[in-house]
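Narrative of activities, Objective 1.

The group set out to show that a structural description can be obtained from nothing but a protein's sequence at a throughput compatible with the screening campaign. Below is one input-output pair from the validation batch, recorded exactly as produced.
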Amino acid sequence: MTDKYLIRILVVILLYCVSVDGIAGDDSGWSQHTVFFEFAGAGLLYSVNYEFYVTQSVGIRTGLGVFPPGLGFPMLLNFYKGKEKRLELGLGFSHLESFLFGDYDTANVILATV
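Output recorded for this entry:
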């Protein structure tokens, strides 16, 4: 898969995620479900994530991340503080699977987000 092809796929996914997030919102400005694209976050290089807000101050996030040469599956529990300006604190892990040169390897990485 070439880099140009991969970039095109990511742009389509990003546009889809932005549209899903806009559709999921309501008039109150708060949505219980969010889908978003993240660069250099829990999925390492880049990832597409889904977050379910249990309350306005607690969220559960999972996603699919890509890092050369493999995939990452981040899972986090996030806590939010504040109304307009929000502080996000999270704890979780990312399961990593690497496919380098035909070898298959897995690892789990503990994550803390701020």
